[in-house]
Predict the 3D structure of the following.
Amino acid sequence: MTVVLDTSAAIEVAIGGASAEEIRTTLESSDVVLVPATFISEVTNVLWKYRKFSGFTDEKCLTAIEFCIGMVDVTISSREIWRESFFEGTKNSHSTYDMFYLVTARRNMATLVTKDKKLREIAAAEGIAVL
């Protein structure tokens, strides 16, 4: 199975959230884990927010960022999918950041792993498998 891992799901695993074990099991049983190139900057930004607002230490944040990056097998260049992501964002009135994950999943016939409710709804409506 091929999966696309979004930032929300990666962070869930990295910080040991409620569904971390289910996501981890899915990733471990997958053949390949894909992400768009925006993934690293998004993960870094989320953990910066945890540092600023939740009191995470620098060490904890850096460890979590490295952990998230380590879950990835293949990174898809934004150059390959930006146009399609733009139009999906327009069509769905939703962040193009999220549409990079949707487009990556659709192009690779992959299951999208996300905690984002709106992204889950859009992906399901487009016939993309979601976990």
